[in-house]
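Assemble and predict.
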Amino acid sequence: MPNPAYEVDQLISPKAIAARVETLAREITTHFSGTDKLIVVGLLRGSFIFIADLVRELDLPVEVDFLEASSYGDATTSSREVRILKDLRGEIAGRDVLVVEDIVDTGFTLSHVLHLLKIREPARIKVCALLDKPSRREVNITADWIGFEIPDEFVVGYGIDYAQRNRNLPFIGKVSFV
Ligand code: IMP
Ligand code: MG
């Protein structure tokens, strides 16, 4: 079934995103300063642009790996059932791990992924999420670093999709169905 018509209105500008990414990277660099074993784990696919910008601002030796967990399909509400579609390539035992997520919404995805990764006994594991929708939370979980707290709106852009579209928008925009 084709998606209904919708409009996208800018919520967060490219400039505001860049400034926030710089600040987050500074804080993360300070937190992990001295490490020589940091693996930045991007949750595909929504975090791909954020992670690309974030790692370039980190003043640390980093490795990058990716994990894909399914959540929404093509709908705009969480399925609650989280599946791992693509696992990490590397081992994380004894390593420092920074999980990079696009949005923490109900929290099911992040809590499932953290549970899975903690079993592998990393030295430290922290989470940086670009966006947080605290009003939607169903699982008691928070990211260690959050780019922006947003209201209960469906958003796209800067890597984030609606039915796989709009990931290439340079800003974060709010979807409204018309
Ligand atoms: P959660 O498991 O409900 O926390 O869902 C997290 C995942 O749902 C995020 O990683 C996103 O991929 C997706 N998601 C949540 N809110 C939005 C949104 O507003 N736009 C697009 N994807 C979203
Ligand atoms: Mg996601």
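Residues 46, 71-72, 78, 101-110, 154-155, 160 surround inosinic acid (ligand 1) (CB under 6 Å).
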